[in-house]
Amino acid sequence: PYNRHMIKGKTQADVSAVMGCSQPQVSRWLSGRQKPRLDSLIQLAECLGMDPVELSKLLSLRRSLAKSIQE
Fold first, then answer.
1. What crossing angle do the helices spanning 23-31 and 12-19 adopt, rounded to 10°?
2. pLDDT at 18 > cutoff 90
């Protein structure tokens, strides 16, 4: 079944446990509501098995979409 909290086979809780941050923080980054610091972006990308540049592009797109929805 679809779980909106699953990312590459991991839950936001899994990611937050590996990163040592809260699940709501991971949610804010992945939804585009908040931009992660560079060190967090790199760690998040490693955790998800993604290239940091590609993840940054994806998160930037999500931020743009979130902003356009709010307007």
1. 110
2. yes
CB 63 within 8 A of CB 34: no
Q: What is the pTM of this model?
A: 0.80
- Cα separation of 14 and 10, whole Å? 6
The separation between CA 14 and the C-alpha centre of its own chain, rounded to angstroms, equals 12
Instruction: For 15-41, give one letter per residue: b (16+ CB within 10 A) or e.
Output: bbeebebeeebbbebbebeeebeeeeb
What are the φ and ψ backbone dihedral angles of 11, each rounded to 5 degrees? -85, 165
Backbone angles phi, psi at 33, to 5 degrees: -75, -20
Q: What is the mean pLDDT of the chain?
A: 86
